[in-house]
Design a protein that fits this description.
With 408 residues, the protein is an alpha+beta fold. It has a domain at 242-408: Butyryl-CoA Dehydrogenase, subunit A, domain 3 (Up-down Bundle), CATH 1.20.140. Helices cover 55% and strands 13% of the residues. The protein has helices at residues 2-6, 45-65, 82-91, 95-124, 132-142, 148-162, 172-190, 193-200, 245-265, 282-291, 295-324, 331-344, 350-361, 374-392; strands spanning 8-10, 17-19, 27-30, 37-41, 69-73, 76-80, 167-170, 205-206, 214-216, 223-225, 269-273, 276-280, 368-372. A three-stranded antiparallel sheet has the order 6-5-7. A three-stranded mixed sheet has the order 8-10-9, with no helix packed on it. The chain is globular. It starts with a helix and ends in a 16-residue tail after the last helix. It binds zinc ion (2 copies). The site of one zinc ion has 8 residues, from loops.
Length: 408
């Protein structure tokens, strides 16, 4: 009985229990009920992931020492590295924006690379080194907050926007940074989370007595007796469904809706060029790009900054209403909406990065100056709040009381 339950795993999207294949069989496993990917195993994944991580660390060093972007204007040439951009923001007393930039493009990727290196080295030595469980839990928690690709899209938009005032030349630092992002993604795809956890603690089934209600741990996927408050393997909180999921989602969403108003009515940024200052809201910024003939970039800004936030708010409201009264009709449709919302959320941050990058890059004083408007902070908060709302929403609530016979 117990042995039969050991290789079960709970699907985080619908709550169904699925049986895992034997540990070393290559391939992927999808939930039988909702098609969510539960497990992936490739042969020799740890060696391949280690190559990605070590190369990534070397390129990370290059991306921070080589020029990232150079601006050529009249007879001045200004080269910026990633960290000198942070310094430029600090010298303008934009501590909050400098902190956001430093955290998302320097500290978090460095932490990811070093943690992965540590875990992979301990995997190759076939023993868990100290504090591995905290490293892996931290890595998994921060995974969805990774903004590196969004930052790169912001770099692209900035290069196009600045091309009317100066000639913009991408440097070796930017290309190395692009490679780091690709390598980190590859390592994320390669690593076998289940085997990493099993190395830390081979037991992934914890019960106090027989015949108990089991919950899947949201961090390490162990099956844990619901009477235990914390997972014995990764020490995260155990609950049958995310605690106060609907109330928290409502709260984050309400705050996001309130802040959405200043985010769209206040200016995003003030641009001074040749003595004239113009202010742009999100919408007028996209419109300005359109009339100056840069329609692909205008489209990116319009989708990321206008369509995605509105779409997310509407979809989450719909899901909340449905979660209060679950019905079996069009369940998969609702789950797909949730997945799209969760996936696209962070891309709205692109406009905030554009403001930060333009400020960090343009230091020509009287000729061109860029200041952030009131919308930059409120829009950044809207994006973070909608991401928190999506994270708090437990999609298993949509399945509550539905299709009980199939979930056994
Ligand atoms: Zn499922
Ligand atoms: Zn756990």
């Amino acid at each position: 009985m117990i042995a039969a339950k050991r290789n079960l795993v709970e699907c985080a999207h619908c709550g169904a229990f699925n049986r895992l294949p034997p540990g070393d069989r290559p391939g992927r496993l999808f939930c039988y009920r909702c098609d969510h990917r539960l497990h992936r195993h490739r042969p020799q994944w740890s060696q391949h992931a280690l190559v990605c991580v070590v190369t990534g660390l070397i390129l990370f060093l290059l991306s921070n020492t080589q020029p990232f972007i150079s601006l050529e204007m009249a007879d001045q040439v200004l080269s910026t590295t990633l960290l000198s951009g942070v310094q430029a923001l600090l010298s303008r007393e934009e501590v909050f924006l400098a902190g956001l930039l430093l955290l998302s493009i320097f500290l978090l990727p460095l932490m990811q690379l070093l943690t992965l290196l540590y875990l992979l080295l301990s995997r190759l030595q076939a023993r868990a080194m100290p504090a591995s469980r905290y490293g892996l839990a931290l890595l998994l928690r921060f995974e969805r907050w990774n903004m590196l690709e969004v930052f790169l899209l912001g770099v692209l938009v900035t290069i196009v926007k600045l091309s009317d005032v100066a000639q913009v030349v991408p440097g070796a630092g930017l290309y190395s940074f692009l490679a780091v992002v690709l390598l980190l993604n590859a390592a994320g795809v390669l690593i076998n989370r289940r085997q990493l956890w099993q190395q830390i603690d081979g037991n992934d089934y914890f019960v106090l007595a027989g015949n108990v209600e089991l919950s899947g741990c949201s961090v390490c996927n162990a099956l844990v007796d619901q009477r235990l408050r914390y997972c014995p393997r990764c020490h995260s909180r155990i609950a049958r469904r995310q605690l106060h999921s609907l109330q928290r989602t409502w709260g984050f969403l309400a705050a996001a809706i309130v802040l959405y108003i200043p985010a769209n009515t206040l200016p995003m940024m003030y641009t001074t060029s040749f003595g004239a200052t113009r202010s742009d809201t999100i919408l007028s910024g996209a419109h300005h790009l359109l009339v100056t003939g840069q329609w692909p970039i205008a489209l990116i800004v319009f989708v990321a900054s206008i369509l995605v936030p509105i779409g997310k708010i509407v979809v989450l409201l719909y899901l909340l209403v449905r979660a209060h009264r679950p019905t079996p009709v069009r369940l998969m449709h609702r789950l797909r909406l949730y997945r799209v919302t969760e996936f696209v959320g962070r891309w709205s941050m692109v406009d905030v990065y554009v403001v930060i990058l333009m400020m960090a890059l343009v230091q020509f004083g009287v000729i061109a100056n860029i200041e952030p408007g009131g919308a930059a902070l409120s829009f950044g908060c809207v994006v973070v709040l909608t991401m928190l709302a999506a994270e708090s929403f437990d999609p298993r609530l949509l399945w509550e009381g539905v299709d009980e016979t199939a979930s056994g």
